[in-house]
Specification:
Radius of gyration: 15 Å
CATH topology of the largest domain: 2,3-Dihydroxybiphenyl 1,2-Dioxygenase, domain 1
Strand content: 35-45%
Number of strands: 8
Helix content: 10-25%
Shape: globular
Amino acid sequence: MSESNTIQNRVVWLDIPVADLDRACRFYRGVLAIDVHRESYGDYEFAVLDHQEGNGGCLVPDAARVSAECGPLVYLNVDGRIRAAIAQVSELGGRITEALHPIGPHGWRALIVDSEGNRMALHSSSDA
């Protein structure tokens, strides 16, 4: 993620759940006319949508979340203050569904449900 993206954008990433990673790669590569490349983290494989200096996203194999109820996961930028942001979630009527954890070389995240019932990820390049 570029410094400009970290400083200026609230939405910094998007996870799109898919049932078939190869099929989804072909779909997004063709529809968006961009490169889509496969990566892995440990035993976990996913595909990253080319994003250069802008906001990015990836295709995440998770057939159970392919639905209108679960759908894409929006990452909100709380760079440099993720612990403070997490501390506010419950106080402001939300709940934490996955505690702060590393996402490989891509930083840190916590999954939450906001005060309105929307599933979101809080993201930071560090665990500060």
